[in-house]
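Record pair follows.
FIRST:
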Amino acid sequence: MDIFLSQKYLKLQNILLQHREIAIAFSGGVDSAFLLHAACAALGSSSVHAFHASSELLPPLETERVKLVVQERGCFFHLIEIKPLSWPEFVANGADRCYLCKKKIYQEFLADPFFVEGAVLCDGTNRDDLGQNRPGLKAVAELKVRTPLAEVGFTKKEIRLLSREFALSTWDTPASSCLATRIAPGESVTREKILLVARCEALLQETGFMGVRVRLCEGIATIAVLQKDLPEIQKKHVFSAINKGLAFLGLRKVVLDPQGRSDLLGCFSV
């Protein structure tokens, strides 16, 4: 392990060791999985609780994948069912949607009967997140949720590097987000739109485009694939087939984001 990263990891361990019991807001992504691993290594699995919010906003089978990741660590797992489509302020899809959602979810975790008295709730916010527009960070601060990875200064790249070194199955997991993020701001979030996004992205994944995003705005779908996949999807026969498939699902127009999404693992030699 690189000496610089080794020192950072040791600092992370020392932060975690300040607590007897740790609860982690666990999404199953690379950041929270790395934090879960570090917590279990520092305190022992019997002192670590992973809290996961399950809802219709997550891609199908996501909760099952999350369960498998937690099983690898052997800690406690708490599945919390949430119903964000029953929250009027969430459905309105205003600028504060992510803040409201994050706050409600973390409040649910903190109020859960299985939340151990005296435990601290942590999440996987990293240093890179602090420089982005993330309304949910306001909720994190208000509820005094600890962010050990950001405190140490871990970047996403460093977390992936160490996750690979520790042989974590999540080291190359593509960045993910809830399906509501695909709905244009100000346009109401509905169950029908969420299901449509899920079906569209599933179709593209079946075609071989992983890490894809399908954004909806008034019936128009904008496809954003990884930058490395742009040459493939821009082939006339490939895009034509996708266009037909998405039109069959009810979309009136399909366009391609010419910029694509940043290649998630471009900094690694795999």
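SECOND:
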Amino acid sequence: MRRRPGFTLVEILIVVVILGVLAAIVIPQMSSASTQAIRAHLGRNLQAIESQIEIYRANNAGLLPTNDIDDPMGEGEAKDGWGILVSSEYLQSEPMNFFADSTVLLGGDEATAIAAGPDVGNGWFYEAVGNTIRVYAAGYDRVNDTLSTDTP
């Protein structure tokens, strides 16, 4: 009998098993990289927002965009609660929170923001305290650099 050229079933199974093992090693690394990218992006966005609020205050004799605790970013053409910071071009556009997939800014405190998951419906929370505005990314704990879906 003549043997035909080709791969045997055993050889093909060995290759499939090796590819499966490699995939099991690589896939968790890829998801970890995307989570790290989201964390880094949120941290940079928070720094930029805080800087622009301070620049606004420096340009306006230390005043915040409004005195209204319920709407500290003030009236403006911008949507999603960013008010005068966007319409006066302190921010180029409403910042996107890619973890929550939203640009909406609503009132809340730090604990509410950290507890918020990706399905919260808004991307940012603000807290007006005295003569300052604190902005938090929904689902992001800046101090511990964690997302609300991270397992302890």
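COMMENT: The helical segments are 9-59, 83-87, 110-115.
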